[in-house]
Design goal:
Blueprint (H helix, E strand, L loop, with lengths): L1 H4 L4 E2 L8 E11 L5 E11 L9 E4 L4 E7 L2 E2 L3 E4 L2 E4 L5 E10 L9 E5 L2 E5 L18 E11 L5 E4 L2 E7 L4 E13 L5 E4 L2 E8 L5 E8 L8 H18 L7 E7 L6 E2 L4 E5 L12 H16 L8 E2 L5 H21 L4 H23 L11 E2 L8 H34 L3 E2 L1 H11 L9 H4 L5 E9 L4 E9 L5 H4 L8 E8 L22 E5 L3 E6 L7 E4 L8 E3 L4 H10 L3 H25 L7 H12 L5 H8 L4 H7 L5 H18 L1 H10 L10 H17 L6 H13 L3 H14 L7 H14 L3 H12 L9 H9 L9 H14 L1 H4 L5 H16 L1 H8 L10 H17 L3 H11 L1
Parallel strand pairs: 2-12, 18-19, 19-21, 22-24, 25-31
Antiparallel strand pairs: 1-23, 2-3, 3-9, 4-8, 5-6, 5-9, 7-8, 10-11, 11-16, 12-15, 13-16, 14-15, 17-18, 20-21, 25-26, 26-29, 27-28, 27-30
Helix pairs in contact: 2-3, 3-4, 4-5, 4-6, 5-6, 6-7, 10-11, 10-12, 11-13, 11-15, 13-17, 14-15, 16-17, 17-19, 18-19, 20-21, 21-23, 25-26, 25-27, 26-28, 27-28
The structure holds tryptophan (TRP) and zinc ion.
Length: 898
Amino acid sequence: MADTATPNVIRRADYAPPAFLIDTVALEFDLIPERTVVRNTMRVRRNPDASHASNFELMGEQLEFVSATIDGAPFAQAHAHEHGLTLDNVPDSFELTLTSICNPAENTTLSGLYVSGGNFFTQCEAEGFRRITYFLDRPDVMATFTVTLRASKADYPVLLSNGNLLEEGDLPDGRHFARWEDPFRKPSYLFALVAGKLVALEERVKSGSGKEKLLQVWVEPHDLDKTRHAMDSLINSIRWDESRFGLELDLDRFMIVAVSDFNMGAMENKGLNIFNTKYVLANPETATDTDFANIEAVVGHEYFHNWTGNRVTCRDWFQLSLKEGLTVFRDQEFSADMAGGATDEAARATKRIEDVRVLRQMQFAEDAGPMAHPVRPESYVEINNFYTMTVYEKGSEVVRMYQTLFGRDGFRKGMDLYFKRHDGQAVTCDDFRHALADANGRDLAQFERWYSQAGTPRVSVRTQYDAAQQRYSVTLTQGYGDTAPAARETQKGPLLIPFAIGLIGKDGHDLALQLEGETRASEATTRVLEFTQTEQTFTFVNVAQEPLPSLLRNFSAPVIVEYDYSADQLAFLLAHDSDPFNRWEAGQRLATRELLTLAGRAATGVPLQLDDSVVAAFARVLTDETLSPAFRELALMLPSEAYLAEQMAESNPAAVHAARQFVRKRLANALRKDWLAVYEKHRTPGAYEATPEASGHRALKNLALSYLAELDDPAEAVRLASAQYDAANNMTDRSAALSALLNASAANGGSVEAQQALDDFYRRFEKEPLVIDKWFALQATQRGSAQRPVIEIVRKLMAHPAFNLKNPNRARSLIFSFCAANPAQFHAEDGSGYAFWAEQVIALDAINPQVAARLARSLELWRRFTPTLRDGMRAALEKVASQVKSRDVREIVEKALA
Ligand code: TRP
Ligand code: ZN
């Protein structure tokens, strides 16, 4: 309904093949910051599979049209307009040369060709290529590209584009040139160029078939000492894709370039990946363990796109999850294999837990609001708004379900068939599903609903034990509950849900599993039930004792499981489940339930108390030396405030904060000795190592420090944190210490120690933008108090000389951190957070609509909050709606208010 009211809605159902095809593209660039001339020569022909059109419509934005020639002769019937160029009455097959001018220096959108730090970069996905030259800028038009770059040799000594370097040389007037050729056909969104003063770390490696490959990581000269980890991650990615999927690097050269002004994480341009510096640069002094892990994941992600995205690409942008969901799945598996190999289930589980936590906190929330959409959306106004948690993270879960259903080998067979059928093509999510189905001899028609239905499915579970018959039945019911209107419209019927289950006996061991009708029990004590109906009962036989069910092991489907566990049962699962994911899950359920009860009390002013049994359950994990430190850290971390607020009938961030703080303090005070012991035991003296083991120790130690900072008397924590801050030889420990100092003093309105550490941190890292981002973020996310509201600190920091709204990383570090990661302070009753949000969305809208639209999304769940907050948010949304210009922000706020 809302869609018909909004103009310019693009619909999946309206897909039509392009009227023309472009086979080859030769681009020539004369790179000058304010006035770059682009000459674009294309071989064009009519598409035999499309209906006839006499005019040739090319897309173009923010371009100054200069000239058009067809087959070498000037072509007069070319009309430039706001959205592109129309050529009237063109022949069936022709060579077209278009010349146009753009202004990279003034391009603050960071889409198309732009200047950052004096160098040139491009970003073309999804629709940035049309800001560089007129083109059929859609992914089902694939061409081979030759690119000639010309620029001042002194200012731009390095000239890069996709593929292989054909030739380079000097030109008159201090200029030089380079010519690149990409032998693979590709859509325009994978085009890239880079020009400037850069240096590279280089490696030569041999690929599986013995061919030598040149690998480069290009950065600004002062960052060369932070490239080793990205290079190692790239080499590991290349090896992994060969061994796990039989996929080899297909170019002689593979380049990664880091840029500090970038809208997202990174971009998979063919042979020339362009990265946000945040996902390339790392050394122990400047990057945390999390940064190291993220770099490995993002380098892997972009590299894996070379096959899943580039060799096989998307027919249209509705199919975005075809490449993104699949590639996220691949990078998650890569990281899990790097951490735990194929068999260390506990180590793999930490990665799984982290991924599921993100999914539940971010994607479930998205699915519950006005932006809810299926993994394959039906419509959009601005495609940039659909690079979402649903397309990426839920999309990855959908891909993972194939592997859960068919096993690793069956999944591999499906992938092999997918490439055999579709290499070099632009295809759909259906093509992928058919390949998986055919390779495994299965009909996956019902599975299609995972692509077309929005909302988070709920599975409720009833169990019954018949002692006389030794039968245990598990009845599963699926539905969506009370979902957002945007999701409800899409819901048609039951899903095929792979539901992994185990049964646990009184001694804590798994029971043998034999389903009714089977002749004997299986060896595996986890079974994947194929749950396909609205309600379905699975009966296990020869069950000698009443078991405790372990449900949805390893989170086998992106659903919410409803089962009425008692607190004792959860504590038992937390202590005994053989599935490490579900051990963690049991602790989270226990904590979530307690925290929501407490938040309800806090909201109505009832005094808070916490049952000793909950403290005891946490104490057991804290002191259980058989569990890995990384796992203990995850299990002892309480669910986030954002996640908890989302679970309330009426979100109340202040009440959630009070409840969570109460529990943290209670756990801190009750287990003080244990926290101190853990803190001492898990120190990592000596040289920094980025291994999973070492980072697990640091994570647990720093969690202990953060709990100690909650003690009624934090003096000891302050002493430990100050000492840790001063002695740290790595950013993980230094930033954790700084955070502990900030939080230990929050209730008293700050402390000398905290301020000194903050000042020291700034001076120490003044020349490291990524670390200064952390400095802003730590302050924006710190705990506040009545006498010291964080909004005041944030507003002061907006005027800091190092703040810069045009740099997305910096804007995110201060503004997004406050608006999206400090809910208790952002949702202040006086509306001060919302007023700030509106100002910043409006300011960013004029600079960078993509970034503005991301910020705009932080109010989308406004209807679910308490009445006062709801009113404040609506007013702020209306203010923004009345002032912003970009299609990007309009779509978000209009959907929120609809
Ligand atoms: N395709 C990129 C990835 O996920 C992400 C991406 C899409 C992007 N659009 C972008 C990155 C715009 C930067 C800017 O790997
Ligand atoms: Zn991607």
